[in-house]
Amino acid sequence: MNHFDLIDGVLHAEAVPLTLIAEAVGTPVYVYSTATIERHVEVFREALAGIDDPWIAYAVKANPNAAVLATLAKLGLGADVVSGGELMRARAAGIPAERIVFSGVGKTADEMALALREGIGQFNLESEPEAEMLADVAEMLGMVAPCAYRINPAVEAGTHSKISTGRADDKFGIAYDTALDAYARAAARPSLKMQGIAVHIGSQLTDLAPSRAAFEKVGLLLAALRAAGHAIVNADLGGGLGVPYDPAKPIPPLPAAYGEMVRDVTAGWNARLMFEPGRLIVGNAGVLLSRVIRVKEGVNRPFVILDAAMNDLLRPAMYEAWHDIRAVVPREGEMTAHVVGPICETGDTFARDREMDRVEAGDLVAFMTAGAYGATMGNTYNSRALTPEVLVSGKDWAVVRRRLPLETLIAGDELAPWLQQDQHAEA
């Protein structure tokens, strides 16, 4: 469910016409709906009804905008972070440290020290060398680090290969069969408190069977760890539940079905369950607005050339991802076209042979379901400015990341001293 609807022939975000935002802020621009974010949190919580005190840690990487994080903080969510920067963003937005879990395979000693000083709730360790580094850092600071090992269950998630994370040869977690020995070695370090177990098999999951298989393996390992004397109190089941992008593809499982499966599999675990939803919370809560520069005739299809590019929305180029593309002020009729951006790469293609609303130069279009892995993956390729972001709440709206001038981008470069001397000499 989202709050982007046609009202009097114009696509709105809640009660705000997208034409108003485009005229005021320019395009391309991301627009997020507070009501949609709030509704998705409510639906996910309802799906977990009957689970005692679930720890919901929003995956910051999906959309780290400060206003989005502050909205989620007000709703009582924690955060799943994968870098020191994400940790600082979560804390600045008001998310309590004890509700933060730190995942990721490449935590540095500095990031570990930052997280320890902040007092985060749990480190999800992804290798034994990482555990040794954390133990050393915590010992140096005179602290004890609350930890879990992320287990690689060797389960194929059935999602895109670039966002599948639980196969035997993926870089994430420790091998399932090595876990008992790894926990024993970690528990021997006094500066590590092995309090949990974690698993995450991938993103944009459209079938519950792989998750069930992974969770069942975690349940068996949880029992074995306790039998070996480890006081495991947390079980982090990760995130990854998909959202609908392409109407031609199977609809992802509803959160209610996911919650029912979790309750069934985890019955009797006697552990606090942790969840890391990201896309599920913000995916449908955002759109990317773009303006048609021109429509160019092609050999087989016309090209709709937009002012948004792959640097603004990378998912189609990176994952062959599908986004619905809608006219903000629909005209009569439809067209079949290739939809592309202005970057000098053939990969800067959003859609080929797409049946869509008929558009002309100057028209606005909206990429739907763009609230997750959109602005956060943006870059400045072709010396293009980062995309601004807007948050809507009812009739109100505000710019929550402004478009920096190109002069600011260029000013970030510095000439080497010998080149500065050449410039002075020429002057």
TrEMBL record:
Annotated positions binding pyridoxal 5'-phosphate: 240, 276-279, 373
Orn/DAP/Arg decarboxylase 2 C-terminal domain boundaries: 30-371
Membership in a protein family: Belongs to the Orn/Lys/Arg decarboxylase class-II family. LysA subfamily.
Keyword Transcription regulation: no
InterPro entries the UniProt entry points to: Ala_racemase/Decarboxylase_C, DAP_deCOOHase_LysA, De-COase2_C, De-COase2_N, De-COase2_pyr-phos_BS, Orn/DAP/Arg_de-COase, PLP-binding_barrel
Annotated pathway: Amino-acid biosynthesis; L-lysine biosynthesis via DAP pathway; L-lysine from DL-2,6-diaminopimelate: step 1/1
Alphabetized UniProt keyword annotations: Amino-acid biosynthesis, Decarboxylase, Lyase, Lysine biosynthesis, Pyridoxal phosphate
Catalytic activity: meso-2,6-diaminopimelate + H(+) = L-lysine + CO2
Molecular functions per Gene Ontology: diaminopimelate decarboxylase activity
Summary of the function given for this chain in its UniProt record: Specifically catalyzes the decarboxylation of meso-diaminopimelate (meso-DAP) to L-lysine.
Domain Orn/DAP/Arg decarboxylase 2 N-terminal: 35-282
Residues carrying N6-(pyridoxal phosphate)lysine: 61
Annotated HAMAP family: LysA (MF_02120)
Sites where the protein binds substrate: 279, 315, 319, 345, 373
Enzyme class per UniProt: lyase
Protein name (database record): Diaminopimelate decarboxylase
Organism: Sphingomonas naphthae
EC number: 4.1.1.20
